Amino acid sequence: MATKHSRAAARLMISPAVLLLLGWMIVPLAMTLYFSFQRYNLLMPGMEEWTGLANYQYFLTDPAFFDALTNTLLLVGGVLLVTIIGGVLLALLLDQPFFGQGVVRILVIAPFFVMPTVSALVWKNMFLNPVNGLFAHAAKALGLQPYDFFAQAPLASIIGIVSWQWLPFATLILLTALQSLDQEQLEAAEMDGAGPLSRFFHIMLPHLARAITVVILIQTIFLLSVFAEILVTTNGGPGTASTNLTYLIYAQSLLQFDVGGGSAGGVVAIVLANIVAIFLMRMIGKNLEA
Amino acid sequence: MARQVKTRSKVIVTIAAWAVGIAIFFPILWTVITSFKSEADAIADPPVFLFFNWTLENYVTVQERSDYFNHFMNSVVISVGSTLIGLLIAVPAAWAMAFVPGKRTKDLLMWMLSTKMLPPVGVLVPLYLLFRDAGLLDTRIGLVIVLTLINLPIIIWMLYTYFREIPGEILEAARMDGATLKAEILYVLTPMAVPGIASTLLLNIILAWNEAFWTLNLTAANAAPLTAFIASYSSPEGLFYAKLSAASTMAIAPILIMGWFSQKQLVRGLTFGAVK
Fold first, then answer.
1. Which residue of A15, A142, A266, B156 has the fewest CB atoms within a 10 Å radius of its CB?
2. How far apart are the first and last CA of chain B?
3. What is residue A290's predicted lDDT score, i.e. its pLDDT?
4. What is the mean pLDDT of residues B215-242?
5. CA nearest to A171 within chain B
């Protein structure tokens, strides 16, 4: 059906998008790569010089890098764990018939639409603040000592906040997938004497595998780059206790004006993200074929 | 007997589902309620829920002290502007890929998706310097450019999954009936494509409205959208709970309402059509 003429037209229609994305990828990437081999600090203009791999050496041997890497993995892993387990349970609950399904769906999905800076600040000040926060009030009412969340467990607090933002997304996708499950299959299994647990593990969970894969893929992309939540709550501290890779590179480049060091960090972040991406794309590719 | 059991389980599920729903929604509800309190009521221990002197004072203060409306308009211009330009570039591309698929269409789509995997912080330094040199730091136009580019792959993917579902046979049928190319596009394709384009538009405005990496790093006072404006409450102003709540409520209300309308499209949009 497609003629030579329409192919040429199609190519013309696609090219602006391809060229823009290509430029968007190549120009900054090439610059990052170039800067990463330079000694280049914005506070010392005119002192730029080629330093080979020195920036990488500093960045990779900096203890802060190892902390940031660990924190990044904990943050991504922690949020994935909470949102997927919580999301499956919630989806199972919301899939049952009950009164007011539409309204409850709206309530559950709401946190996803709250901008990161708002959710982080509301949680930090109005709930987790050790003096005036709602949790501190509750602790005092129960005769307990208020807990200083961001001083005692900064990373866990951030994991909590980010999980609250992403739980709705996981729930919504898993619920959508669950609703496409063939009811007759479940009924047949029930007739054959399969209990609720074995029905869940042998029918529902395999059916959800694809949706769970998609949730992992998409959330990982976003979670590797968590930034605003850290900026407005802990600034990465105390020390490096809640610094992830994104925040570390931001601090290096825009707070210490170390363009070279920040760029080396950027390259490291890109390499790490690519490892995750290849792994995930393969996983999703396998799942999408089926 | 069976019906009774069914009703009872439905009641139990109803209670559980509502309890969970309200618990998840509670921080938002609490923020909205607090925005109508005086500062003293906002930190009262034990907390006051509904019985306090409701006031609009915080909203007035937030507007007067920090020119809230300017930041609101920045958010509107940046999110709507980047989405519209994105659509302008993406509609032809997605159209061509859906209706004239070639051998490499699939690879092209996967490559576009892969540009989304590039961590923004990896290109923070060069972009910051390019913007500084081009005078684009802290300008609306600068943010429109960046957000257009980062959301372009999602826009193309979303549109592609919608367009692909428009059956090709319908075009042939129209042609058999003697429709001209113009009539074909105007009366057959456009009505079928509009719902997909509309959902893409809605979802991308939401994503751009809430984007909080580039907006925080590339703006200061002038072009700061609401994400960056709210970040200025991080300390010590954030301790004025009532004002923080009023500013937050205004920042999330419009997008929350839009979000509720688009929740069905959200799933397929954000999963690149993999889950429907």
1. A142
2. 37
3. 44
4. 83
5. B267
Considering the domain boundaries, does residue B48 fall inside one? no
Which one, of B205, B85, B63, lies nearest residue B144 by Cα?
Answer: B85
- The CATH number for A228's domain is 1.10.3720.10
In B, minimum Cα distance to A100 occurs at B14
> Which residue range(s) make up the domain with B14?
2-34
Do B13 and B97 sit in the same domain of this protein?
no
Residue environment code for B113-144, b if the CB has 16+ CB neighbours within 10 A, otherwise e: bbebbbbbbbbbbbbbbbbeeeebbbbbebbb
pLDDT score at A230: 94
Length of chain A: 290
| Number of CB atoms found within 10 A of residue A34's CB | 13
- The tens-digit pLDDT sequence of chain A (290 residues) is 456 677 888 888 888 999 999 998 889 888 888 888 888 887 777 777 787 788 888 888 888 889 999 999 999 999 999 999 999 999 999 998 889 888 999 999 999 999 999 999 999 988 888 888 888 888 888 888 888 888 889 999 999 999 999 999 999 999 988 888 878 888 888 888 888 888 888 888 888 888 898 888 888 888 988 999 999 988 887 888 899 889 998 988 888 888 888 889 889 888 888 887 887 777 656 655 54
Name chain A contacts of B118, Cβ cutoff 8 Å: 25, 29, 270, 273
How far apart are the C-alpha atoms of A144 and A146, rounded to whole Å?
6
Closest residue, chain A, to B127 (C-alpha): A28
User: What size, in residues, is chain B?
Assistant: 276
A118: Cβ contacts below 8 Å, ≥ 6 apart: B31, B230, B248, B251, B252
In a domain, B99, yes or no: yes
| pLDDT of B178 over the 80 cut | no
Neighbours of A285 (CB within 10 A): 11
| Closest CB to A96 among B13, B231, B274 | B13
Instruction: Give B179→chain A minimum CA distance, Å.
Output: 17
How many folded domains does chain A comprise? 1
Instruction: Give residue A173's domain range.
Output: 53-289
Is the CB of residue A157 less than 8 Å away from at least one CB of chain B?
no
- Whether residue A92 lies inside any domain: the answer is yes
Asked if residue B114 and residue B24 are part of one domain, the reply reads no
Q: What is the ipTM of this complex?
A: 0.87
Is residue B237 assigned to a domain? yes
Q: Which A residues 53-82 touch B at CB under 8 Å?
A: none
Domain count, chain B: 2
The beta-carbon neighbor of A113 closest among B45, B233, B252 is B252
Mutate to test the interface with A, among B11, B32, B124, B125 (most CBs of A within 10 A): B125
| Local structure of A49: helix, strand or coil | strand
DSSP state of B102: -
pLDDT tier at B44, thresholds 50, 70, 90: confident
Residues B105 and B149 occupy one common structural domain = yes
Q: What is the mean pLDDT of residues B1-23?
A: 84
**Does residue B27 belong to any structural domain of this protein?**
yes
